[in-house]
Amino acid sequence: MAGRFITIEGGEGAGKSTAQLRLRATLESRGISVVCTREPGGTPLAESIRQTLLDVEGEAPVEMAELLLIFASRAQHLAKVIEPALAAGKWVICDRFTDATFAYQGAARGLSNELISTLERLVQEGRQPDAVILMDLQPHIGMERAKSRGALDRFEQEQHHFYERVRSGYLARVHENPARYTVIDAEQELQSVYNELDKLADRWISEHDR
Ligand code: TMP
Q1: Which of 1, 77, 95, 147 could form a disulfide with 42 if both were Cys (CB 3.0 to 4.6 A apart)?
Q2: What is the C-alpha to C-alpha distance for residues 104 and 139, in angstroms, rounded to an integer?
Q3: Interior CA angle at 95 toward 194 and 138, to 5°?
Q4: Is the C-beta atom of 101 inside 6 A of ligand 1?
């Protein structure tokens, strides 16, 4: 049986990595083989594109170049990591995927959804996440958390209104296709986040077993 493709989304400092670790532990404790990965990144070439995208020093890509670099890294990541893992029956938990492109390059940078959808069709050939978790929080809280982690990357140096648009972009995606998303309040205490994630994992496992 093919595995499941789960993605975790949210603004900066939303706790995506912590959620990924928790889901991995819960699923593995139930005997499921899990691959954790991230975007942009996940293969050596895609990680080098990530470095280019996040670098605050070098030449900043124009919006279209940023979009194409993200989809180039996605094509590599899908072919080398995600598709083979799913075909082998593993569950893939990916820290960000194309919802991030609609939120950041679409809603926040202003590129059209039509353009992003065209690239999505070309690169993903129908591949979509089976489930998306949106770790939702107010941008100013996320930015405080991100700042406490150290130096800010190129995206983290954007202004507050950029992050308001990212958040609205994500929530608009949820509104369009609510069945695919679970929105978790990332401002609540960690144990409550864990409880929600554990329940979700249980639900997925029972759906998958059916
Ligand atoms: P991270 O903060 O999850 O490590 O992701 C790195 C940055 O990449 C984050 O600021 C959002 C950005 N990004 C996009 O702008 N578009 C995308 O499609 C993806 C996957 C990430």
Answers
A1: 77
A2: 13
A3: 65
A4: yes
Q: Where are the alpha helices (DSSP H) in the chain?
A: 16-29, 44-54, 63-77, 83-87, 98-101, 113-124, 139-148, 160-176, 190-209
Token pair for 163? 């992050």
Cross-strand partners of 184: 135
Q: Is the pTM of this model over 0.70?
A: yes
pLDDT per residue as tens, the chain (210 positions) = 889 999 999 999 999 999 999 999 999 999 999 999 999 999 999 999 999 999 999 899 999 999 999 999 999 999 999 999 999 999 999 999 999 999 999 999 999 999 999 999 999 999 999 999 999 999 999 999 988 988 999 999 988 999 999 999 999 999 999 999 999 999 999 999 999 999 999 999 998 876
Q: 95: Cβ below 6 Å to ligand 1?
A: yes
Q: Is 139 in the pocket of ligand 1 (CB under 6 A)?
A: no
DSSP label of 178 = G
- Centroid of ligand 1 to alpha carbon of 198 (angstroms): 25
